[in-house]
Amino acid sequence: MKTTLSALIVLLSISMTSKSQVKVGFEISFTEPQAHYVEVEMNLSGLSKEFVDVKMPVWAPGSYLVREFAKNIEGFSATANGKAVRFEKVRKNAWRIHNAKAGNVKIKYRVYAFEVSVRTSFVDESHAFLSSTGIFLYPDGMLNLPSTVVIKPFKNWQKVSTGLEPIVGKAHTFTAANFDILFDSPIEVGNQDIFEFTAAGVKHEVAMFGGGNYDKARLQTDMAKVVEQATAIYGENPNKHYTFIVHNFSTGGGGLEHLNSTVLGATRDGYSDPKTYKGFLNLVAHEYYHLWNVKRLRPAALGPFDYDNENYTTSLWVAEGFTSYYENKLMYRAGFFDEQETAQNLATATANVINTPGAKIQTVAEASYDAWIKSYRPNENSNNSTISYYSKGEVLGMLMDIEISNATKGAKNLDDVMKAMYDQYYKKLGRGYTDAEFKSMVEKISGMSFTSFWNTYVNSTAPIDYAKYFKYAGIKVVNENEGKKIPYLGVATKKLEGRVMVTSVSRISGAWTAGLNVNDEVISVDGNPAEAVIDKMAVFSSKKVGDAITFTVRRDGILKDISFELVANPNIKLSVTLDEKATELQKAVRKGWLQ
User: Fold this and answer.
1) Which residues contact 444 (CB under 8 A, 6 or more apart)?
2) Distance (Å, whole) CA 321 – CA 457
3) Which of 208, 232, 253, 266 could pair with 193 as two cysteines, CB 3.0-4.6 Å apart?
4) 218-277 pLDDT, tens per residue?
5) What percent of the residues of the chain are helix, what percent strand, and what percent coil, each to the nearest 5?
6) Distance of CA 247 to CAs 159, 208, 475, 553, Å?
7) How many angstroms separate the CA atoms of 332 and 229, rounded?
């Protein structure tokens, strides 16, 4: 037994020594940015096997879709000590390099980068945005290896913005302790407008590409407020430095979280509009809160990552949905919304979930698990058959928060759960949590069972009892549509190439029952030209519940008349007011919930 154990230790030692001697370096350059190409050179040395497999991830953490990044690679070549060596593709995202231990292995390839989003790379003559999972290969089985990255900016490009650690004394040269960090560090190269602020003791860099009417001083102040409020929940900020990469377009939005950076999409000239500006700060709040929720406190399935396959979890409603919920709390605590506005925003979010037909079909746990095949692959029927784990998770975060505050008479709230989970699973155990472990912590903090909550709202499509929860916090809520007989068409149309086309049909409408289809071309409605219908819906406005309506459509070249009765609008519209006669307990619950 001792001999076997000693031999095992020796083998492990040799293996670890072998891997520790492997060195990885990348050089990134741009010879044809106008054609949207990135040139990548990967250098490997110290390999001990006859061959090495190098792989490209198929997805980007935080964006739950297999994107097949390897499809953008071309011009692959490999040499060892300057001489060409044999290589072959062994799977869709992997290449095998032979004679690897002969010496220094150099791999060259080009990446086509022409997809504008926060999760995919884009290069043109003005700048380069590199989403690392779609740029860098990694040696199979060696994700823990450190690497260096040298960026060679194109011609007059002067700046590089990234969360990677810079190597002092070497321009545009960075290091990553392992490939998880490299893959979690997007890179912006160009002449972006850079400004900084310090908040929670951490230096934050904001890299603005695309211009815009933003006020730097205002953003420095307001973004710092969000950072301070997020940090206050957990009592610590895990960063040495943090980078916001902001892409300003004519119309922009969306964001993707990373370990110590984020990529945000924004509307170039929207910073002067109060609503759009607050929307941007909401996005900042969302992505920054992810520093704790997801990037560190995470479901067990989301790390260590499998970069070759989908990583399934039923807990995205917590990982993503609760982050959406915390946008509201952070914006309130930072002073951008008051109690009334915050409660109204959450009531509207609740109504949006209830009004989604798919909320009656798919549970939020199912929505989390099926993100890979449904959420990121929507079709014309998605609204009828699915619910967003962002949207419903946001609402469940509110319900759970109020429930905890009510159970503890305002002494505790969801913040206490999130911090306890962070301390236990990230800081102490260094692993992800299971759904059962999260539920257990909620019960521990609240002092009550949450089995009914999980059965009703997480693993079921039961109706949301929003009035009960708002009442706990002394908030009156009314459905403005209640008692009104408003006719409901349930059909959306759009003008495409001069034709009026049906783009969606709600499953709770007469049109659904009668068989009106997406992609039907509307010729007329009750004999009136389709143009009038799409522009003003003049025909529909004179209808009442129970009235018949006839769509004449062209489907596959054949004219059809489709008639149906208009049903009453089933959707709710919630408005809230703070109850002036709230009890002391209700006031304590409200304060404990929001403060």
Assistant:
1) 420
2) 13
3) 208
4) 999 999 999 999 999 999 999 999 999 999 999 989 999 999 999 999 999 999 999 999
5) 35, 30, 35
6) 15, 6, 39, 42
7) 10
Query: What span, in angstroms and rounded, lies between the C-alpha atoms of 270 and 517?
Result: 37
Place of tokens 């143009």: 531
DSSP strand pairing (122-123 vs 128-130): antiparallel
Contact between 113 and 121 under an 8 Å Cβ cutoff? The reply is yes
DSSP characters over 138-196: EETT-TT--EEEEE---TT--EEEESSEEPTTSTTEEEESSHHHHHT--EEEE--EEEE
CB-based contact 559:546 (threshold 8 Å): no
Chain center to CA of 42: 30
> Residue 506 — φ and ψ, nearest 5°?
-75, 140
> Phi and psi dihedrals of 149, rounded to 5?
-130, 120
The identity of residue 117, as a single letter, is S
77 to 40, 130, 515: CA distances (angstroms): 11, 21, 55
Average pLDDT over residues 364-382: 97
Q: Cα separation of 538 and 542, whole Å?
A: 7
At 193-232, the pLDDT tens digits run: 999 999 999 999 999 999 999 999 999 999 999 999 999 9
| Residue that is written with structure tokens 């979930």 in the block | 353
Q: State in Å, rounded, how far the first CA of the chain is from the last one.
A: 60
How far, in Å, CA of 457 to CA of 367, rounded? 12
Please give the order of strands across the beta sheet that includes 122-123. 122-123, 128-130, 187-190, 159-162
